[in-house]
Amino acid sequence: MELSESVMKGLQTLADPTVFDLKSFTIFTEVAFDSLVSHRGGSVLGHPDLKHIDQTTLKHCHTAATTFILEGVKQNADKSTISSCLEDVKFLNERVDTFYISFQVGQCFVSLIHGPPHITDAEWRLEYCIKNSHVHKVNQPSYLISLNTERAGASSEINFSCTMDQLQDLVGKMKDAAKSLERATQS
Amino acid sequence: MLLVLSEEHKEHLGFLSEVDPAVVGEFGRIAVEFLKKGSNPKIYEGAARKLNVSSESVQHGVEGLMYLLTESSKLMISEVDFQDSVLVLGFSEELNQLLLQLYLENRKEIRQILGKLAPSLPHYHNLEWRLDVQLASRALRHQVKPTVTLKLHLEDGAKRSARVLQTDPATLQHLIHELERALAELKSSHCRRILRNIK
Fold first, then answer.
1. What is d(CA B42, CA A152) in angstroms, rounded to the nearest whole number?
2. Closest A-chain CA to B73
3. Could you list the pLDDT tens digit for every one of the 187 residues in chain A?
């Protein structure tokens, strides 16, 4: 991961135990992640437990930390990449671990950067259910649909079942979307 | 196909022949209520006091009826088979008819309730869609990039969930084509033959 000199300097300050003791570091990390993840996240500036640190330094470190986090999420960085970057700026092991835990929790906002998962394909299976352990003589056909999706290089599947009527409803709605897409592009 | 009742079950149901047919009718109604909404032990005590019997006998009677109804509905046994199965209990003709009516009136609903117990995947509930067009970004202006955003609503028992997904026009056409093929499969002669013959 390539980081600017300003970000590196900010992270080095964050690693310094004379500026941030362990308690302040933990609080700072939490607030920094919160500020990215939620709208009502508190600010590092004016935080009661961080008042003893120079506000300019605090601001610089906050910018550095959030830039680092966003780069990490953008590139889908794994633990070794994050750890080696932090070790380069002299983060002690326990601080690397604290940071990485928050990083993993914060990865839920990947959707803010990458958007919703993109459907790439659909697979289907037609079944005829004869009986199950609770009801005999079911005699109903049903479909099993699997939608292949992709986001930030990671693929996954959404599986669900539906009856013939429900599948017709699903296809009907998709066709409505396609038709209005066609109309929009023609006008 | 006959229903085979265990000795214990027959014993529990034996209690029903000792009471008024009207009471049996009431027990039947309670049994069906319990199947639909869950059991309520307080009712056993109330009934036991009125009939002057132990609440355990009442509980066994009602639970015996519930089991009789669920087993019969599960196997979807015919009228004749039901009557023959109940014959072994040695009830009066009036009681037999009462039980038969109870079975016939409620079996469809009981089967629906039992069906919800079977293992299943979340099933489709609804699809909402939205058309978006990206016109420009920091890197590139004057674009026309259409995307379709979909919200797929799924239902799993009582839980509802919604997944937001995205796709492009070409993939959307492909999805429609693929799923229409799936629908057409149900109308093929192979499927029709199977649906017709397995009953």
1. 57
2. A135
3. 788 899 889 888 888 888 888 888 888 888 888 887 765 566 777 778 888 888 888 889 888 988 888 888 777 778 888 888 888 888 888 888 888 888 877 666 655 666 789 999 999 999 999 989 999 988 999 999 999 999 888 899 999 999 999 999 999 999 999 999 888 878 7
Rounded to whole angstroms, the Cα distance separating A69 from B157 reads: 39
The pTM (predicted TM-score) of the whole model is 0.67
- Amino acid occupying residue B117: L
Query: Distance between CA atoms of A135 and B110, rounded to whole angstroms?
Result: 10
Distance from C-alpha of A61 to C-alpha of A19, rounded to nearest angstrom: 11
Cα→Cα distances B60→B8, B15, B20, B41, B140, Å: 10, 8, 16, 11, 76
| Residue B94 amino acid letter | E
Q: How many residue pairs bridge chain A and chain B with CB atoms within 8 Å of each other?
A: 139
Q: List chain A residues with CB under 8 Å of B129.
A: 173-174, 176-177
Closest by CA to B15, choosing from B46, B42, B43, B52, is: B52
Distance in angstroms (rounded) separating the CA atoms of residues A87 and A91: 5
Kindly report the CA angle at B22 between B21 and B26, in degrees rounded to 5? Answer: 115
Q: How far apart are CA B170 and CA B166, in angstroms?
A: 12
Per DSSP, helices labelled H in chain B are 7-14, 21-37, 42-51, 55-75, 79-87, 93-115, 169-186, 189-197
Q: Say yes or no for a CB contact (<8 Å) between B123 and A121.
A: no
**How far from the centroid of its chain's Cα atoms is residue B145's Cα?**
46
Beta strands in A25-165 (DSSP E): 118-129, 140-151, 154-162
